[in-house]
Amino acid sequence: MLSEGFRQPAGKWPVDLAVYKYKIIHKGEKMNCIVAVDKNWAIGYQNKLLARIPEDQRFFRETTTGKVVILGRKTLETFPGGKPLKNRVNIVITTRKDYRADDAIVVRSIEEALAEAAKYNSEDVFVIGGDSVYRQMLSFCDVAYVTRIDHEYQADTYFPNLDLMDDWALVEISEEYSYQGLTYRFCRYERKKTK
User: Where are the beta strands (DSSP E) in the chain?
Assistant: First the structure.
């Protein structure tokens, strides 16, 4: 509980206060995340996606266009020309003090990303990676759009396995699709509501 004499500390908000501020602004509503994973919930290898599936890329594009995306600097640098995604508000998290990115909002911490995200409707905010950003931001998400690829890749980065988390439930699953011998499904997970 905050005392009456509480003042925001100079500099960045501690994580618990950033969470508190975000929840107050959004009345408990949280954001989304979107990701493609393999059988082991792997998402990448050596700063590259594991697979490029046109329908998955189209789904990502259609779902996030006109929205706000939160991503790490390394993820941004994997995009064509290292440029932010068009037709979206890009919030880029980096600890590099001198880092700049045209057409993006650059923040230095998760707390600053939350403060920036609080300016938008939570249902319009999507966490898009990489693994460190996913891990740190998952607790602020209520919905996860997960493309499940039925293949096991060599990988060095992973998304948390929502099937093993008690507070997440699979609520929608598409029919099976295939592309160049790969089968995949579009899934929607939601955080279970607490009473």
Answer: 31-37, 42-45, 48-49, 68-72, 89-93, 105-107, 125-129, 141-149, 157-158, 168-173, 177-179, 182-191
Pair 146, 187: CB distance under 8 Å: yes
DSSP-based three-state secondary structure for 36: strand
Give domain status of residue 159, yes or no.
Answer: yes
pLDDT at 177 over 80: yes
Which residues lie across from 72 on neighbouring strands?
Answer: 93
For residue 16, give the amino acid letter: D
> Is position 40 within any domain?
yes
CB burial string 11-23: b at 16+ within 10 A, e below: ebbeeebbbebbe
Do the beta carbons of residue 144 and residue 35 sit within 8 Å?
A: yes
71 Ramachandran zone, left/alpha/beta (phi>0; psi -120 to 50): beta
Q: Which two tokens stand for residue 14?
A: 């501690």
Segment 99-154, tens digit of pLDDT? 999 999 999 999 999 999 999 999 999 999 999 999 999 999 999 999 999 999 99
Say which CATH number the domain at 87 has.
3.40.430.10
Range of the domain at 136: 15-191
CB 70 within 8 A of CB 133: yes
Total number of domains in the chain:
1
Closest CA to 38 of 130, 153, 142: 153
